[in-house]
Here is the input.
Amino acid sequence: MSKIICWKCGKAATKSMPHWYYDEQLHQIIEYQVQDITKHYRCYCDDCIEKVKAADKEDVANYIRLKKIMMFNRALNLLEKQRINMYKYKDAIDVVEEHIKNNPDKYDSSYEVIAAIMLVHNRVSSKMQYKIGKYQVDFLLPEMGVVLEIDGDRHRYKKDYDSKRDAEIKKNLGYGWDIVRIKTEYIEQNATKIVKAIEMVVEYRETNHIPWRKLST
Ligand SMILES: [Zn+2]
Here is the structure.
């Protein structure tokens, strides 16, 4: 059997290429090594494999960065379609743009970008992708006692899962907290009313004298 040479430089190869993919849900590179060095796979010498790995990681980082820019641009396009006066929202849009740059993993969709813009514009403080027990919620609004979830089509077929999830989240947050689910179609048509919808839930709680406990963090 002829010896296997480095795919890049031609020296004797010692390692096969680690195979990897970018998991969109976990926001992580999942890497797995192909065990045997055979001609079926691209193989590398010790020097080259580190360079190849570093280049791959950079590609993924660039991919994520570009994806988030496209997501952000789409969110602004969606707002313009609703004939929203963009200049009125410029300050909030700038804040969210800066936040995405520094926290790309916090944003999963254009709808979340829009919700973030509306929350900032209305001075509602929020924590994004907040972990509660084993679940992660889209927005935690600690001053309002509300969890805000953005519901896309993917939610339509898992109502049972959602009610179990909601019960678990409420149990963890404490009595009185509300989970407000806003559908993406609603955001597409009534972006400026997101905060009003949340406030209605809070008002209902107040008029009915339902107490809620602030998180002790
Ligand atoms: Zn090499």
